Amino acid sequence: MIFTVTLNPALDKTAQAPNFKLDAVTRITELRQDPGGKGINVSKVIKQLGGESVAWAVLGGNTGRGIKASLEDMGISCRAFEVEGETRTNLKVVDPVDDTHTDINEPGPVVTDAMLDDMLAQLVAEISEGDIVVLAGSIARGASDDTYEKWVKACREAGAKVFLDADGDKLVAGIKGNPFLIKPNEIELGNMLGRTLDTDEKVAEAARELIAQGLDNVVVSMGGAGAMFVSADRVVKGGSVKVPVGSTVGAGDSVVAALAFAEEKGMSLEDKVKLSMATGAANVMQSGTQAAPRDLVDSLIEKVTVTEM
Question: For 143-212, where are the E strands, in sequence order?
Fold first, then answer.
């Protein structure tokens, strides 16, 4: 089973706003709403790929109840942990004229460590050997800085393969728990190690350093340049597929979703690379954070190049 965990979910509103400008009145021409937050996005993509997951999320108020209902309408099981206050709403402004994407994210409600500890205990009790746990996104206000480190360790000790998709100090803290896989981009990875990673060789070497510290897999997203997949014995680069851009929000989440799905299915590294890169490209073509259909993903798989480094 795949479990996704979203500690700071959101209702994502994606607005099409041609000629968006600061200090000016903007007219929205299209608006869509999607249940969001990185872990929830992962669950949505897994569903479209043909897999199953349980989305664990901290949800509050009418917005939280709406997110849970939307997920269940999609056929995604949701374990909601109620928090006081209202789950945040994030606004994504897409300007199709100037080709810009602007995110305006609310901070979200406040949680307590006691609440998260209870949530973690319940998750650990449901984990079986070989399950996959995806910890993704920001951590709600009020949580300790070592929250992801604690969750990674507990889930790993329960027998799960832990995928961690966070950034900044949350990623650095989480790595201390030795997750099975992390997915920084090259800028985040460079910031962690205190240097600029401006070539494939530098990216691969930086990822190898983390592998040497005890990680199993490091996947480094590199935007239009593709992604680097690094383990103890392999370094493979997956090429990006050129597609028309609908929204870049959630593109990285879709890659994580495909990797979790592929890991559960026991796919080869080459097939994991192809599926994850094709899934990322297909989801870039969508509006908002809706998940791309499997047939679109399949149509892009053979366009992905796989290069052994």
Answer: 161-165, 181-182
pLDDT of residue 131: 97
Please state whether the predicted TM-score (pTM) of the whole model is above 0.70: yes
| CATH node for 2-308 | 3.40.1190.20
Q: If you search the block for the tokens 């600029």, which residue do you land on?
A: 196
> Which residues is 73 bridged to in the sheet?
none
Domain boundaries, the chain: 2-308
Q: Where are any strands of DSSP class E within the chain?
A: 2-6, 10-16, 30-36, 53-59, 77-82, 88-95, 100-104, 132-136, 161-165, 181-182, 217-221, 227-230, 235-238, 306-308
* pLDDT at site 306: 93
Q: Cα(first)–Cα(last) distance of the chain, in Å?
A: 32
Q: What is the pLDDT of residue 26?
A: 87
Enumerate residue ranges in the chain where pLDDT < 50.
none
pLDDT of amino acid 152: 97
Q: How much is the pLDDT for 53? A: 97
Question: Would you give the DSSP letter of residue 195?
Answer: S
Specify the residue for token string 């190049």: 305
CA–CA separation, 21 vs 238, rounded Å? 36
Q: What SS3 class is residue 228?
A: strand
| H or E stretch covering 251 | helix 251-265
**pLDDT, position 169:** 84
% helix, strand, coil for the chain, step of 5: 40, 25, 35
- The answer to whether 131 is a known catalytic residue is no
Assign 165 to helix, strand or coil.
strand
CA-based nearest residue to 110, from 146, 84, 79? 84
Helix (H, G, I), strand (E, B) or coil at 140: coil
CA distance linking residue 254 with residue 239, whole number of Å: 16
Catalytic member of 198, 253, 271, 298: 253
Those residues with Cβ within 8 angstroms of residue 170's Cβ, 6 or more apart along the chain or in another chain: 138, 139, 145, 147, 148
